[in-house]
Amino acid sequence: MRIAIVGNNVAGTTLAKGLRDADAGAEIDIFTEEKTQYYPRPRLIDFISGAIQEKDMPFYPLDWYAKNRIGLKLGTRVERVNPSKKEIEVDGTMVSYDKLVLATGSNSFVPPLQGLPKRNVFTLRTIDDARMIREASAKCKHAVVIGAGLLGLESARSVCTGFPHMTVTILEYAEHILMRQLDHDGATILQRWIESTGATIITRAETVEALGNETVSAVRLKDGRTVEGDMVIISAGTRSNLSLAMSAGLKTNRGIIVDSALRTSDPDIFAVGDVAEFNGTVWAMIPSALDQARVATKKILGQASPDYTGTVPSNTLKVVGMDLTAIGTVRSQHEPPEPGYEEFKTTSADGQVYRKFVVKDGRMIGAILLGTKKEAVKVTKIIKDGTPVDGIKARLSDPSFTFE
Questions:
Q1: What b-and-e string marks burial along 56-74, b requiring 16 or more CB atoms within 10 Å of the CB?
Q2: Which of 102, 89, 83, 73 is nearest to 15 (CA)?
Q3: In the prediction, which pLDDT does 50 show?
Q4: What CATH number is associated with residue 224?
Q5: pLDDT in tens, 275-322
Q6: Residue 259 domain-assigned?
Q7: Shared-domain flag, residues 27 and 95
Q8: Residue range 98-114: average pLDDT?
């Protein structure tokens, strides 16, 4: 069986490894426009800060691909897909396949700001982006980061850590930082911590224009304020790369629509990772990419496997040096309560640890653990397993309570 994978990101590379582990005879090729083998995107942050060198970025050495008989076609562009002939066009040459996997990922979204393009305005998605940010950071004095999601906050940290001479201002359109992972109380604690490190955060800040001549010098907000910055990093979310799928006539929405086998509207074409849309959701997370790659591996090979049913959102990481675990459904305290939902919150005496548990119909469906990681594994398991928590609900608001 000839399997062609378009994209060498975490989804595409994990799928390739899974296919080789499960089928020694499959012919597997990965096609990617990047010139470097797969590297975890979180390592871009450490590369910018200087914590790791570029040579340490790849997850696998080049000889790993050869040893596993995985053809890695670096610097190659898949120009179109011809489903009727089961071929892809690669740099002008037609290549046949039995099964095709689109792991084309996503691109950074750039809002329609006035005044673009300008020099020293960046997004962070690839090693090339990281190189340019490093080069500019050595010369610039004031960085503006547009977007206070995980990538925006970590981008700010990388610049602050790697280039102590830089001052950083983070602009967030929404009412608080990390809108997807935190509620207002948790965001307040984290913002206070980040600002104690020297960064400035402005919320409810809608950026409308990049100021300056050829090189950016400041940004203008919708309310008329200007924020000085001779470098700007835009971290305003991502959009799935759909051009190949759309030109091939596959069904798309926000992503490529897939079923529970990660199969597209063409039975011989699959999609995984940031480009896949399942049940109306583009998950766009590392855990979902891994889940989808595992399921698709078995389905492609015709082996028995549970169907893909979605992924419980889960992030366990350090955000600007503070431990954060956000799992499942995290409801904002500003939303009106719904029948069956209960929230239990605790804050440590020093204000450094915040815990929140969301319970619906007797089962925990979401949690925030900020400033601690001691119970992250246990809480994650309770949520994913759907373990009843009626017996401990009364204790969830006790700061001293621990999961045994």
A1: ebbebeeeebeebebebbe
A2: 102
A3: 96
A4: 3.50.50.60
A5: 999 999 999 999 999 999 999 999 999 999 899 999 988 888 888 888
A6: yes
A7: yes
A8: 97
- E-assigned strand segments in 241-283: 256-258, 269-271, 276-278
Q: Is 115 a member of any domain?
A: no
**322-354 per-position pLDDT tens digit:** 899 999 988 644 455 567 788 999 999 888 899
* Cβ-Cβ contacts under 8 Å for 262 (sequence gap 6 or more): 270, 271, 272, 276, 278, 292, 295, 296, 299, 308
Same domain, 245 and 98: yes
Cα separation of the two ends of the chain: 49
**pLDDT in the model for residue 339:** 73
Q: Which of 279, 301, 323 corresponds to the end of one domain?
A: 301
Q: Which of 106-110, 266-270, 371-375 has the lowest mean pLDDT?
A: 371-375
Neighbour-count burial of 373, counting CB atoms closer than 10 A to its CB (0-12 exposed, 13-18 middle, 19+ buried): middle
Q: What is the dihedral of CA 392, 397, 400, 404, to 10 degrees?
A: 20
Q: Please say if the pLDDT value at position 20 is more than 90.
A: yes
Query: Distance of CA 200 to CAs 143, 153, 358, Å?
Result: 11, 11, 31
**In a shared domain, residues 96 and 162:** no
- Are 227 and 212 a contacting pair, CB within 8 Å? no
- In this prediction, residue 98 carries a pLDDT of 98
What domain range includes position 229? 121-234
Classify residue 293 as exposed, middle or buried by CB count within 10 Å of its CB (0-12, 13-18, 19+). buried
* 195 and 244 part of one domain: no
Q: Please state, in angstroms and as integers, the Cα–Cα distance from residue 379 to each residue in 20, 269, 336, 358, 400, following that order.
A: 34, 37, 25, 11, 15
- 370 and 286 belong to one structural domain: no
Residues in the chain: 404
- In this prediction, residue 312 carries a pLDDT of 87
Domain count, the chain: 3
End position of a domain, from candidates 301, 325, 355: 301
